[in-house]
Amino acid sequence: MPGLEDLYREIILDHYRSPRNRGELPVPPARHAEGHNPLCGDEITIYLSVDDDVVSDVKVAGQGCSISQSSASMMSAAVKGKTVPEVRSLVKKFKGMMSIDTGDDPPSIDVPLGDLEALQGVVKFPVRIKCATLAWNTLLEALDAPIPSDT
Amino acid sequence: MPGLEDLYREIILDHYRSPRNRGELPVPPARHAEGHNPLCGDEITIYLSVDDDVVSDVKVAGQGCSISQSSASMMSAAVKGKTVPEVRSLVKKFKGMMSIDTGDDPPSIDVPLGDLEALQGVVKFPVRIKCATLAWNTLLEALDAPIPSDT
Amino acid sequence: MTIDWDTVRADFPILRREIDGAPIVYLDSGNTSQKPRQVIEAMDDFLRTSYAPINRSAYRLAGEATDRFESARASVARFVNAPSADEIVFTKNATEALNLVAASWGGANLGPGDAVVLTHLEHHANIVPWQMLAAKQGFELRWVPLTTDGQLDLTDLDRLLTGAKAFAFTAMSNVLGTIPPVTHLVSAAHDAGAVAIVDACQFTPHNVTDVQAWDADFVAFSSHKMCGPSGVGALWGRMELLDAMPPYIGGGNMIADVRLDGFTTAPVPAKFEAGTPPIVEVIGFGAAVEYLESIGMAAVRQHEIELTRYAIDTLGERYGDDITIQGPDNVEVRGGVLSFKFRDIHPHDISQVLDQHNVCVRAGHHCAKPLMRVLGVNATARASLYLYNDRSDIDALADALDGASDIFGF
Amino acid sequence: MTIDWDTVRADFPILRREIDGAPIVYLDSGNTSQKPRQVIEAMDDFLRTSYAPINRSAYRLAGEATDRFESARASVARFVNAPSADEIVFTKNATEALNLVAASWGGANLGPGDAVVLTHLEHHANIVPWQMLAAKQGFELRWVPLTTDGQLDLTDLDRLLTGAKAFAFTAMSNVLGTIPPVTHLVSAAHDAGAVAIVDACQFTPHNVTDVQAWDADFVAFSSHKMCGPSGVGALWGRMELLDAMPPYIGGGNMIADVRLDGFTTAPVPAKFEAGTPPIVEVIGFGAAVEYLESIGMAAVRQHEIELTRYAIDTLGERYGDDITIQGPDNVEVRGGVLSFKFRDIHPHDISQVLDQHNVCVRAGHHCAKPLMRVLGVNATARASLYLYNDRSDIDALADALDGASDIFGF
Ligand SMILES: Cc1ncc(COP(=O)(O)O)c(C=O)c1O
Ligand SMILES: Cc1ncc(COP(=O)(O)O)c(C=O)c1O
To answer: Which of A33, B18, C85, D60 has a CA-to-CA distance to B27 between 20 and 30 Å?
Structure first.
């Protein structure tokens, strides 16, 4: 078995202890989506403000393990300010790193993973892949959520 | 395995080839009940006329294997003319011969089995016990059937 | 590649079981099939070294078991050429699979004025669930009748399908062996706007199954009839249909969230797999389809076609008019399920006499009482073949039938 | 008789399985239990020498299999002290058993204005079926709350039961180990005119079960949690209730007759056992209860009481305020299911670190999300004990927890 140090990298524990972008956004105008990890009970809610196809703000609420929380925190930092196509490409690239089949096409835009590469070690712990991807799948759902109207 | 001659006694084959009391009785005044053997698909209908607590007539309809048909035929010959308590005792005695648990009490009236003893060999072929008892269980149901009224 | 069928036969330990000093002759595979050692060993080994919960716990043993479980799902999907493993729902048997379709899809889609078309060939598993639902929701059942040689009489099919919302039919009769033209029936259903539900219980064990070539909507089958363990069956369904259907059985694993005031469901297939699944059985099912694939289903079908021809010919030559084999004579449109009449001897008595010679056949209504009534009997004797049978089994059957004449003196 | 628990432990082959050179420490029996060789061998042997259809064919092999199947039913009935083996209905798991009661009994008996009482301890299997039915038939669900130490708070029980038609509750919590006073709850239900439905999934594996002493109406349990195979569960019910209930799943075996225009049902238990049953699994279930009887359930309970005490004391002494074991402290009213909080480390991370030391515990919501909300968490780490565990397993757990502190630096 790979050592736990592959999983619990310092940067991961740092995001876990001091999560970025915690909180909620008012819906509307923001959109949101909820995700559940049936395996461990983790629950996450992603709030997203999209203006002119740019993610202008993102917030993360919910509870979870170190991997799901740190992944959500890093994700929130990485997507803020990106365009929606960039965000979709990032999701694809991240899931690819998690060895999840995302089809044959490469992401349309090459967005660097940056800090997120620290999560690479998760692949050696297959049951944790769902933890690492929970925030990302929920992000996709939030992107696809109907654009809220004020009425 | 016991030989088939234990099962297919001559008297059994005789009742099978020339079944007694085949037919139907008009309901009402007769009562009737239907029985199914889910194992082999046998179906039987027993018609019963009871006057003053005496089985004055009995008829057997339906199709089945040699054991179920001969058992029904012998049964019909045996119960005709007997009182209802005698019939119930006979059923109990017959089922006892088939090694079916009928409780601790012996039959209240001792009615001889007569020809029916030929069916004793069935006990050695446990899957056929249901064939041999089909007519008897259906007889009990017919006895317990609501007394038909003309209205 | 030519198959050594003796080696195949030797894979099945029970065929060496003796009763009264002689091996059994197993001709009841239409009822349930025997299991090769590869399947028995896969389960035994899993129980001794790898048994763990599925989809619930995070330690490695559980992860490993979950992977084996999901890879069995992938094997079963591949075996019937399902587009995605997620479209395979594991059930307890084919009966539950058909009930699931009736209660969930039918429950949401059928009401007064609607019709479901069935055929006179159907097994109770593809009749009773529809009758139960019809009694509740008030739709009509219509029946495709048979020709005299036990094939579907399709003369009026279009009329029967007019206004129908579902057509549910068997891909192979468990009584007559008849193999209806599935692709044709599916497209007739679709032309009429009806969903096509295939009871493939008797088909998948003996033929190359391709749910995409059929273009069907739902296909049900059972592990125990195809060299796999009891306790597990499968429903394949189109994802868009499964996705839209309400859940069937409620409990753990099928939920996304549960609150005091209600629940939300997990994605398919979990939505339809409430509770602890048949863990070991699914793994055995996977081993069974892999075993069958290692031989090749086209080869299995060919073997059975030849054996069926041999059986029909041998019995016919030996007993002439004294024997009638029901169903189509053309072995291209039938499987190795041989219901037969023999000299007016009741099927149950035939089976009894055959059993004296260790020949195992089923006598009864085969869970197809409406078909029995069409045939004008209340039971048939049925010899049903599988890949492990060979000509010696047919010869044993033919020999043993002689005994029946002796006793009943016909 | 004193039991040699080392011999018992040695009956379970998987406990010799090594990962990374060391044997596994299995503490997830509340999820699913491991199987003794006696059960594995009974199934293996049956598959190799005696596998045949049940209740359908008349040859000796089938008769023999049917007898073994029915004698397993009798064993299971005896194990829970059911008055009659015919009152044992085999299902695919406990979840199906509870769905059967809800859909069939509930479907026929519950409507607007009615109420069903559940508790905050319930597993999704005893919640979702009632929610599904309530959504269809419009009755009310009421909930018995908990005390702070995870016992049922019965203060308002009589009021909750007023006008209720059913009270469905667990006999032992799969999260907190709590063992509610079943007999008392049943009699309160009966006093209110409600039927009493007991989810005994966690109870039967660990305790002497006596459905007659409980005076319950329905009791559900699962083979896989009590040393038996996956793929089979059981519902015990009072015959007069089962008898009056409509069928649940339709198909073969559950019918007396089928015509084109309808069907009639077979007697209980066949009425509720449609399709080919889990043949091998039922036989394995029979072997499992016989195995447990050979040890004695009173001895099993005593062993687990001692081990639970040892676990609570050892963890408490070692980690003091850093560990909180949820549920009652009194081992007389709880079983060996130990949910714990450890130094604010997320349960999933705890399980990960423990797995590094081969210690298998479950982290998650345990299919009891409403209870999680009551506890104010969304997951717990849970070590659950069984007859094959001993003090060395608890010590391994305590040692492995140290690793968690190192990493998370608390
Ligand atoms: C044609 C057909 N359909 C359905 C079934 C039901 O399958 P199972 O008993 O595995 O549920 C059977 C087998 O009994 C069958 O032969
Ligand atoms: C208390 C309780 N009830 C019901 C169930 C459901 O049992 P099964 O998964 O065997 O259907 C479980 C186990 O998961 C349980 O612990």
So the answer is: B18
Q: Please, are residues B72 and B66 in contact by the beta-carbon 8 Å criterion?
A: no
**What is the model's pTM?**
0.95
3-state secondary structure of B98: coil
Taking CA–CA distances from A68, the nearest residue in chain D reads D348
Q: Which two tokens stand for residue C171?
A: 């891909």
Instruction: For each of the domains in chain D, give its residue range(s) and CATH number, in order of start.
Output: 5-30+296-407 (3.90.1150.10), 41-294 (3.40.640.10)
**Cβ atoms of A82 and A54 closer than 8 Å:** yes
- In sequence order, what DSSP letters do the residues of C247-278 get, joined into one string? PSS-STTSEEEEETTEEEEPPTTGGG--SS--
Instruction: Go through A97-118 and write b for each residue having 16 or more CB atoms within 10 A of its CB, e for each that does not.
Output: bbebeeeeeebeeebebebbeb
> Rounded to the nearest 5°, which phi and psi values hold at D256?
-95, -45
CATH architecture of B2-144: Alpha-Beta Complex (3.90)
Q: Residue length, chain C? A: 410
| Dihedral Cα C243, C248, C250, C252, nearest 10 deg | -50
Structure tokens at B93: 């005695």
Q: How many CA atoms lie within 13 A of D160 on its CB side?
A: 21
Taking an 8 Å cut-off on Cβ atoms, the answer to whether D60 and B38 are in contact is no
Nearest to D107 by CA among D82, D86, D133, D84: D133
Angle between helices A66-79 and A129-144 (to 10 degrees): 40
Q: What is the mean pLDDT of each run of 10 residues along chain B (151 residues)?
A: 82 92 92 86 92 94 92 94 93 90 80 88 90 94 79 48
Per-residue pLDDT of chain A (151 residues; tens, 9 = 90+): 568 888 999 999 999 999 999 999 998 899 999 998 877 778 899 999 999 999 999 999 998 999 999 999 999 999 999 999 999 999 999 999 998 887 777 778 888 888 899 999 999 888 899 999 999 999 999 999 877 665 4
Q: Which residues line ligand 1 (CB under 6 A)?
A: C 93-95, 123, 125-126, 170, 174, 199, 201-202, 222, 224, 233, 367; D 252, 275-276
Calculate the average pLDDT of chain D: 96
Summarize the confidence of residues D131-151 as an average pLDDT: 97
Count CB neighbours of B98 within 10 A: 20
Compute the nearest-CA separation of B78 from chain C (Å).
24
Place of tokens 């109770």: C124
Which two structure tokens, joined as six digits, stand for D273? Answer: 């056992």
Could you give the residue numbers annotated as active site of D?
367
pLDDT tens readout for residues B110-123: 888 888 999 999 99
Which ligand is nearest the CA of C177, by number? 1
Residue type, C117: V
Q: What is the pLDDT of residues C26-53, one digit of tens each?
A: 999 999 999 999 999 999 999 999 999 9
Domain boundaries, chain A: 2-144
C367 flagged as catalytic: yes
Please judge whether D58 and B127 are an interchain contact, meaning their C-beta atoms are less than 8 angstroms apart. Answer: yes
With contact defined as 3+ CB pairs under 8 Å, the chains touching B are: C, D
- How many CB atoms within 10 Å of residue D2? 5
Question: CB under 6 Å to ligand 2: residues?
Answer: C 252, 275-276; D 93-95, 123, 125-126, 170, 174, 199, 201-202, 222, 224, 233, 367
Report the pLDDT value the prediction gives residue B1, as an integer from 0 to 100: 57
Query: Would you call C378 and B1 a contact, using CB atoms and an 8 Å cutoff?
Result: no
Q: Which of A40, A69, A128 sits opposite D347 (nearest CB)?
A: A40
Question: Exposed/middle/buried for D113, CB within 10 Å: 0-12, 13-18, 19+?
Answer: exposed
Which phi and psi angles does C243 have, rounded to 5°? Answer: -60, -40
Tell me which residues of chain A have a C-beta less than 8 Å from any C-beta of chain D.
1, 4, 7-8, 13, 39-43, 63-69, 125, 128, 131
